[in-house]
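A quick aside before the break. I want you to see a complete sequence-to-structure record at least once, exactly as it would be stored in a machine-readable document. Don't worry about memorizing anything.
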Amino acid sequence: MSNAELLSHSGLFNYLEAFGTVIVEAASCGLYVVCTRVGGIPEVLPQHMTTFAKPEEDDLVVATSKAISALRSKKVRTDRFHDQVKMMYSWRDVAKRTERVYQGITGDIPPEEFYGYYLGQSSEASGDRVRSFALIDRLKRYYGCGVWAGKLFCLCVVIDFLFYVFLEMWFPRATIDIARSWPKKQAQEKSRPSAISQGQK
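That is the input. The structure line, written in C-alpha cells, reads:
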C-alpha cells in the first residue's frame, strides 16, 4: 500500500459503513483517499485527505479523476498524512479504552471512575451504576461526537426528552410499579492451605 499514491474506497453497496479502518491505514501510508459519502466515512478523515463522491459509479469516476489531477498538480501534500493520522488515531489508545470498558463491566474499577462525573456534580452512583447527567451536559457530550453525527445526536436527544416529558404528564411514573434489581451473586474464593501449612502438618 505504501507504494501507491491513491486509494479508491467504494461504498456503493455498503450504506452502513460505520468506520473505515482501511482508509485510515491508507492515509497513514501517505495515500490520497477517494471514498463515498455513506455511513460514518465522511467523519473518519479530514477533508484535505479525501475526495468524496456520491454512491454512484459515474460520480465515483469523476471524483477519482479530480483526485488524480490534484495529485499531479501537487495540490495535496501526502507526505504529511502519516504524522497527522498518528495524532488522530492510535491502536494503543483503542486498546486502553477497550480494556477500561471490560474493567468497568466486571467491576474491577469503581463506578465513579468508570462512568466519570463533571466538576461540581455529585459523583455518587446509583445501585445499578447508571449515571445521571443534566440535559445540557448530555447535549455537550453528544455534540462532540462528530461534525454531522453530533448535531444529529443532539436533535434525537431533544426529541426524546420532549417525548419523555409528554409521557410523564400523560402517565406519571409514580403510578408505575418499579421492578427490583436482579440480585448479583458475589464470587467467593475458596481458601486453599498453603504449602508451608501443609509441610507443618
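Two observations worth writing down. The beta strands are 6-9, 32-36, 50-53. The longest strand covers residues 32-36. We'll return to this after the break.
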